[in-house]
Amino acid sequence: MAETRNLVLVGGGHTHALVLHAYAKQPMPGVRLTLVTPDPTAPYTGMLPGYIAGHYSRAALEIDLMHLCKRAGARLVLAKATGLDRAACQVQLSTGAAMPYDVAAIDIGITSDLPQIPGYGAHAVSAKPLGDYARRWEAWRADVTQGLVAPEVAVIGGGVAGVELALAMAHRLRDQDAQVCVIEAQHLLPNIGTRARAQLLAHLAQAGVTCVENARVAEVTENGVRLSDGRDIAASLVLGAAGSRPQDWLRDTGLHLTDGYITVDQYLRSQNDPAIFAVGDCAHMAHAPRAKAGVYAVRQAPFLLNNLRAAMGTGRMRPYHPQRDYLKLVSLGGKSALADKWSLPLEGRWLWWLKDRIDARFMQQFRD
Q: Among 69, 100, 152, 283, who pairs with 76 as Cys (CB 3.0-4.6 Å)?
């Protein structure tokens, strides 16, 4: 009998979910497939603003990784990866155990923690990983409903993600005389077209969202946010959405990193270890650098699966070349959305319908 080889997927990101879905249709003989992830489900980021705004239930966001593993004949190990012993070909786990691999892929996402801000860890929550934010949001809303805290929100970070979540929270709290404030160290929405930016700023004003630009956060307290110029912004919920950071444990892996992210080649393979692949937000594509976006994680999936098969001895590697631009659909709080591509913005309820159909189709493939 052929020797069994270990293929380990580290992290339950969108790319790995799609790999499991496709692997179930054509498993590899002689390969033991394992998924290592801390939770049996993974929330779909594309539907988060809709969930925060009240358009979706929490269950609608969840990708059932346990179900996917069962379909694919894969083992599910509920643990967090904490390191790699590349000499021994083992993934080190938070349980103290080690998972052997012949080939491994990493899809662990990013974090939007801001540890450099005093008080952030104790008094704020990050938009990513979004599971923590979703739980904190529901608990906070319950406190608001019971009158235990004031409906005051501060969002640190005025990029598209911060603005989209601010609009979603303002919509959900529209009947509670809420105060939502977005704080940005520079100008709001720096990475979107001029016309789309103007439209989003108009929607923020219409929703009653306060915008504070060119302001740096000096401290997060139990009462809100203190700015470096001494101003205080009252908030019982502080959300961090100011960019992204790689997972800290990657620093000690010995893998080639770019700004802390795993550097991969056109085959999504680590530049200095052919047994390690990386995809999604935790990877840096050296051959075609791109901003972090879920669309790349989704489109990497068939290439990752093909190249994992090749690394295990079946077939040939296929290069992945990401598109230069893609359709950005931004939720506007209510059931309306704005689309931006090639600096030509459109908006309307029909775009929300389109986004909802795209998200529903994406999620349905995991349930069939």
A: 69
Final residue belonging to a domain, choices 193, 214, 242: 242
Instruction: Please check whether residues 10 and 75 belong to one and the same domain.
Output: yes
* DSSP code, position 357: H
- Structure confidence by residue, pLDDT tens digits, 92-117: 999 999 999 999 999 999 888 888 89
Q: What range does the domain containing 95 cover?
A: 5-110+246-311
**Which H/E stretch holds residue 135?**
helix 130-145
Whether 243 has a pLDDT exceeding 90, the answer reads no
Show contacts of 288-297: CB within 8 Å, 24+ apart. 288/321, 288/322, 290/322, 291/191, 292/110, 292/244, 293/326, 294/14, 294/45, 294/46, 295/326, 296/322, 297/13, 297/14, 297/15, 297/107
Nearest to 207 by CA among 229, 236, 175: 175
Tally the domains of the chain.
Answer: 2
Among residues 268, 290, 311, the one where a domain terminates is 311
Distance CA 6, CA 274 (A): 15
Confidence of residue 367 (pLDDT cuts 50, 70, 90): confident
Residue 259 falls in which region: left (phi positive, over 0), alpha (psi -120 to 50) or beta: left
Listed range (165-174, 192-201, 231-240) with the worst mean pLDDT:
192-201
Q: What is the pTM of this model?
A: 0.91
